[in-house]
Amino acid sequence: MIRFKGSHYPKPVILYAVFFYVRYAVSYRDLEEIMAERGVDVDHATLNRWVVKYAPLVAAEAQKRKSPTWRSWRMDETYIKVKGQWCYLYRAIDKHGQTLDFMLSERRDEAAATAFFARTIKGNGWPDKVVIDKSGANMAGLDNMNIGLILAGWYWLIEVLQVKYLNNIIEQDHRFIKRMTRPMLGFKAFHSAAATLAGIETAHMIRKGQLSTGGKTAFQQFVALAG
């Protein structure tokens, strides 16, 4: 359960603001006006603090509660501007488009790819197959995962495919994330970028039905994650 102790606003108000920001392409000043129209006087700086604080916590709960995923993966990166510099949002989905995991990185190299695959495997189990682009760094990251399997005495390895058309599904999946981040015109800090993207990815998971229970609306599902 996510704690809201000490907040000067009710939990539903905070969650409504966070959900609205990570689900719809609005600026913080736009959201400030939207909240005012609903009778809530809150400035854009406070709204930013709410997103940075609570979006990652809700995202962590979503990872715990999402429906089971398939063992055939698609992995790719997309670009996100932070402090005027391009960073890399590593993303993985299964063959049916269900989100596995995501990770913002300042670098696109073997170390980053290895960290992402280790994180995704920890949360979703070992894949049978992973489809990637022609990136040597991503191939090296998967090679490191397979080396780990060999050292552990396993008799099977992850099958790695570098076939562009098979990865179209994740390139299409990037579009929702890019559509949400485009009006934000870049992030001023890495930690706030990572937090906001975690919220956007969670809203996207809800939109794809990965957390659907009992006919709840998208917002109701988001609130349920907060406990």
Automatic annotation (TrEMBL):
Q: Where is the DDE domain?
A: 72-210
> Which keywords has UniProt assigned to this entry?
DNA recombination, DNA-binding, Transposition
Record bears the keyword DNA-binding: yes
Pfam families according to UniProt: DDE_Tnp_IS240
InterPro entries per the UniProt record, alphabetical: DDE_dom, IS_Transposase, Transpos_IS6
NCBIfam families linked: transpos_IS6
Q: What is this protein called?
A: IS6 family transposase
Q: What organism does this protein naturally occur in?
A: Paracoccus marinaquae
